[in-house]
Amino acid sequence: MYKFLKNIILFLMFLIFLGEIIVRMFHLVSDIPKRVITNHGIQKYVPNQEGYWKGGHHKWMINDKGWPGELPLKFDNLILLIGDSFIENFMNPNNCHQAAFLKNYMPQNNFMEAGRSGVSLIEAMEICEELNHLKPLINTIYLNNNDFYESIVEIQELNDITQLELKNKKIIKGKLKSPGLKIILYNWKLAYYLYNRFSPATMQMNEKTESKNKDNIIAANTFKHQKEVFELIEYISSNYGITNKILIFHPDSDQNIINKCIAEGFKVIVLNTREGQGWTFDYDSHWTCYGHEQAAKQIAGQLPKIIEDIKNNSIND
Predict the structure, then answer these.
(1) What is the DSSP letter of 39?
(2) Containing domain of residue 277, as a range?
(3) Which of 63, 65, 111, 224 is the most buried (most CB within 10 A)?
(4) Which residues of 154-174 are buried (b: 16+ CB within 10 A; e: fewer)?
(5) In CATH, what number is assigned to the domain containing residue 33?
(6) Buried b / exposed e across 17-35, counting CB within 10 Å, b at 16+?
(7) pLDDT band at residue 219 under the 50/70/90 scheme
(8) Structure confidence by residue, pLDDT tens digits, 133-185
(9) How many domains, in total, are found in the chain?
(10) Which of 109, 56, 103 minimizes the C-alpha distance to 78?
C-alpha cells in the first residue's frame, strides 16, 4: 500500500512538473509584472521587468520609472498618456503603443505612457499630480464611461482602485489585492493556467464574451448615476488644475458625460470608429494595433490646435 501511494505521488509530481514545462514553453498564460504602491498612493510596477504576453508572440516591458512601454529619449515638449489597460497595452508589442504611433505623427513632441489596469479617472488625476515633476506640456487621460463610475465609492466600493468618497470629499487610495496569492499564482504557471481556465469567475466571463460589445453599446446609451458622476466631475475641476489636461473619450462614450466635462472647462477629444471598422480583438474589447493607430491618428489631428490654444491662453493670462 505504501509503495502504491508513493508511486501515485511521484506520478502526480511528474504530471505537475510536465504541465509546468508545457505551460511555460507554449506561454499558455501571460506573465504578470509585480506591483508596488508609491508614497503618493499610486499603484505602479516594479521597474525593469519584462515578460511574455499569452501566446509568446511578443514581450511586454516595464521601464525604469515603473510604467509599461518604452521611455522617450528626451523629456522636453513632453505629453503624458495616462489611462488603464488600454494604455498599459500588454496585449500588443511596444511599436503598437499610443506613444509610438503619436511620435510618428507628432515628431516634435515626446510621449510617455503611464498606464495600469484598473486606473480610474480620479487615480488618473492623482497620477498627473505625481508626475508633475516631469513638467509635461500636457496630460492626456484616456477614458470610457466605467472610469467615471469606478471612481465613486457610493456607486461601488472597490478596495483595489483609487476612488472618491463623495459624501466626505475624501480620496480613498487603492490597496494591492491578495498580493500573497498573486505571487504564488504568477510564479506557479500551471496553477495560474488552471485558475484562469476553470475558476467560476472566468467561466462566467467567458459565457458573456459574445454579448460584450452589444452590452457596451447599450451601457453607453444609458446614462447611469448622473448625480454622482456630475458631482465627481465638479470635484475634479475644483480640486485639480485642469488647464493642461485633455480628456480623450473612447468611441461610444456617453454624450452627457462629455458635455458635462466640457461645461466644467475640460478640453476633450472624442474618438470614433469611422465607417464601422473594428478596432478591437474578436475575443477582447481592447484595441488591436489597427485600433491604436486609428486612435492616435485622430488624436494627432486635433492635439496640435488644442496645445496652441493652451499656450495662447497662458500668454493672455
Answers:
(1) T
(2) 2-316
(3) 111
(4) ebeebeebbbbebeeeebbeb
(5) 3.40.50.1110
(6) eebeeebbeebbbbbbbeb
(7) very low
(8) 999 999 999 999 999 999 999 999 999 999 999 999 999 999 987 766 677 76
(9) 1
(10) 109
At 202 the pLDDT is 47
> Mean per-residue pLDDT for 43-67?
94
d(CA 310, CA 308): 5
The crossing angle, in degrees rounded to 10, of helices 226-239 and 121-130 is 10
Kind of pairing between the strands at 245-249 and 138-143: parallel
Q: Report CA torsion sign: 249, 254, 257, 263.
A: positive
State the Cα–Cα distance between residues 96 and 89, nearest whole angstrom: 9
pLDDT digit string, tens, across residues 223-239: 679 999 999 999 999 99
Whole-prediction pTM:
0.86
Closest listed residue to residue 116, CA positions, set 156, 138, 88: 88
- Taking the C-alpha atoms of residue 136 and residue 310, their distance in angstroms, rounded to an integer, is 13
